[in-house]
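To: structure desk
From: M.T.
Subject: fold request, one chain
Message: Could you run this one when you get a chance? Sequence is below, nothing fancy, just the single chain.
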Amino acid sequence: MDKAPYVGNGCRQRTKCQLIKYFYEANVADKNYWKRLTESRSGLAIQEEKLKQLDQFLSPLIQMNQSIHHICVNNPDRLMWSEKTIYKYSNTGCLKTRNIDLPRKVRYHSRVKSKPLKIDKDCRVGRTYADYQRFVQEYLDFPVVEWI
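Reply: Done. Structure tokens follow.
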């Protein structure tokens, strides 16, 4: 416990020692890390007063059939949030206006994000063109057939 990381995991006299002991448990530390990470990123990053002010400004304009994009472009000095953030607040129901009040938002379907295709690189070992050429050189009398 005299040097970093100041835990008694490697102490040889752990059972006989009278000092207060601290142990590092990686599983517990990892769970605490992920819990703190998810809690810090959940919820909205805006105070209720600011949200009310935003709603009082946006709702009348949206009721006049203006899009959020149009409002953001024409009022950059009054809005402190990005267009995407305002859409997020609208989607989560934080604003009085809903998606039904946004005509184009209702018309379009949400995009489905495709997952990237993962390929196991080990499946190519021994199956390259150079491997094929070596095989043909070794077995000259072996018939080569191409499947269509």
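Reply (cont.): The chain has two domains: 1-42, 46-139. Let me know if you need anything else for the meeting.
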